[in-house]
Amino acid sequence: MTTTPAASKPVVVPAAAQTKGTNLHWHEGNISRAERHKQLQTTGATLWFTGLSASGKSTIACALEQVLVQRGIHCYRLDGDNIRMGLNKNLGFSAEDRAENIRRIGEVAKLFADSGCIALTSFISPYRADRDAARAVHEKDAAGAIPFIEVFVDAPIDVCEQRDPKGLYKKARAGQIKGFTGIDDPYEAPASAELVLKPATMSVEDSVRACLKMLADRGIIPNT
Ligand code: ADP
């Protein structure tokens, strides 16, 4: 593991992020991304939901997925706990594991988006440097930038704690969970998210409408 300086805290570069393979050569496909998307009548993008636990990321992403699929738009949800039960089952909640968790999700979301899918990721993703790294993976792709839209689900901690659908804040307050974001681990709020949702005052439907408008304004989905 190596560290590099950043504005807010040292960036933890997980050992797994360094390429171990040798003699690797990128194999180009026979069609471009643009051709693939045109043929499939789709446009890929990643909507990256970030916010405190219980802020509403998964609830909003699920509702948005339902509307998009009903409109015949190819999208897929990558959800924090679900991914931690499969692809990332070997990762915990140390700073290094959190960084590796987000690094893998960033890469997977990019593959989905490259394929023409709208990837909806809902992860606390508390560290700005990790989110910025996921953005960079999309925006600096060799075949051209892939839209990466950061959606800050901005609910105050007291609202999250009151909702607490999984009882996690209760456990963290009782000392049964260590390093819980917002309690004894930091959440670095996005400085310039493309979209900010306020679940304390916006209904789930309001949030879904805001996401749809932003996708349509950017030409990622058709205007209705
Ligand atoms: P996260 O994915 O951010 O951990 P969840 O979506 O699992 O959060 O939990 C949010 C909880 O808040 C759910 O129980 C949801 O029903 C509730 N909730 C109440 N009002 C809203 C709202 N306006 N937007 C999003 N979630 C809401």
What brief labels describe this structure?
224 residues; alpha/beta; Rossmann fold; five-stranded parallel beta sheet; 8 helices; 39% helix; disordered N terminus
Explain this structure.
- By secondary structure, the chain is an alpha/beta fold.
- It has one domain (33-217): P-loop containing nucleotide triphosphate hydrolases (Rossmann fold, 3-Layer(aba) Sandwich), CATH 3.40.50.
- 39% of the residues lie in helices and 14% in strands.
- It is built from eight helices and seven strands.
- The chain has helices at residues 33-40, 57-70, 80-84, 95-115, 128-139, 157-163, 168-173, 204-217, and strands at 2-4, 11-13, 45-50, 75-79, 118-122, 148-153, 195-197.
- The strands form two sheets. The protein has a five-stranded parallel beta sheet, sandwiched between helices. It has a two-stranded antiparallel sheet with strand order 1-2.
- β1 (2-4) and β2 (11-13) form a beta hairpin.
- The protein is globular and about 55 Å long.
- Mean pLDDT is 92; it is low at 1-10.
- It binds adenosine-5'-diphosphate (ADP).
- Residues 51, 53-60, 122, 153, 163, 165, 199, 202-204, 207 line the site of adenosine-5'-diphosphate (ADP).
Mean pLDDT: 92
Distance between the termini: 48 Å
Tell me the domain tally: 1
How much of the sequence lies in strands comes to 5-15%
Instruction: List ligands, each type once.
Output: adenosine-5'-diphosphate
- CATH fold label: Rossmann fold
Second rung of CATH, namely the architecture: 3-Layer(aba) Sandwich
CATH class: Alpha Beta
What Rg do the Cα atoms give?
Answer: 18 Å
Shape: globular
Detail the poorly predicted runs. 1-10
